[in-house]
Amino acid sequence: MAPSLEPSSHSELSDDALAFLVFVHLEQRDQLGANGVIKRVAQPDRLTGGSRSIYAYALHRQGQTQQGIDILRGQLNDRDGLLAQYFLGKIYNDTDQPELAIAAYESFAFAFPHYPPVLAELTHLRLPGEDYMHALEVIHQTLAPRIYFEIGVAGSFPLSAEAPLRIGVDPDMSGLPAEEKQDASLFEMTSDQFFQQQNVPEILGHRPIELAFLDGLHLFEFLLRDFMNTERFCDDNSVVLLHDCIPIHPVVAQRERSSGPWAGDVWKLIPILRKYRPDLKIATIPAPPSGLVMIRGLDPNSRVIAQNYDEIVKEFADAKLDAFSSTYQHALGLIENDPVAIRRSLRI
């Protein structure tokens, strides 16, 4: 039998508690409920810290946007100023001021990289449009590859179902459904082991890879090896795809994972290839969550990266990224995240 609870001697919540309830209602998209609770905040001027930030955001949602912004700006130098930054970001995002929203969200994300909503909002602001899976589907439909090769087999592998020969390499395929393993040549090992231990020309039927997607370990020296080894089995009509080269925040681009979304430092492939392989044609689709790079003009006889591998790794080991600097954006060779633009880039 459940114990009976005595009714509380307090008929009202504190203003701080009421502010918290306002936020709960707003997160549940219950504006009417939030409006009802906010009316019960007796002394809003005495709210402090997080409670005051929530109250300011609630004012914005009631149409008193400038008053909410003024309150939050007044808190930026307080102990809970970071939370004020977060709610400023939400207001700026709501009011179509993307640059101000990005700046506010970035300040918060540096301190709290584990808070997924902020990184999700940054992704939406930095990389609007369809996600990379949609771009991959367009590429598959355009090229209709007869031989498809993927390192880091994950959710994209089913897109290759129409390819007569599809090859997947991953040290852990436990998450791949049985139906997706049908009619596929799968190798449960690291990519280094695959290239070292397997007779790749025989697996390919002595034909070139037509489309490859390299999405293995998110560390640049591993992806560099994957690219170098894959190119050996391509020709000048092949296309190699790289993922995660537009990290939306520096915390996402760290070598050690410290956030929900994680791209690692594979972005370094872009400046590396621009410097050491200027013969390659690079175009990047700014598709969320972290971009999709298309590389063409491949040369299976090139040994530039192999001969300079150790030097390259040493040179770029400590490189830092401003993913949205004009220099890096130019190096990416950005195209529109649009099926027409993707098809056009593949046919040029």
Task: Give the arrangement of secondary structure elements.
Layout (H helix, E strand, L loop, with lengths): L14 H13 L3 H8 L10 H13 L3 H11 L5 H14 L3 H14 L4 H11 L5 H12 L3 E5 L13 E5 L8 H4 L3 E3 L3 H7 L2 H4 L7 E4 L5 H12 L7 E5 L25 H8 L4 E5 L6 E5 L7 H13 L9 H7 L6 H9 L1
Parallel strand pairs: 1-2, 1-4, 2-3, 4-5
Antiparallel strand pairs: 5-7, 6-7
Label the structural class: alpha/beta
Label the overall shape. elongated
Count of the separate structural domains: 2
- The rounded Rg comes to 25 Å
* CATH architecture classification name of the largest domain: 3-Layer(aba) Sandwich
Percent range for β-strand residues: 5-15%
Main sheet characteristics: 7 strands, mixed
Features of the shown structure:
348 residues; alpha/beta; elongated; single chain; Serine Threonine Protein Phosphatase 5, Tetratricopeptide repeat; Rossmann fold
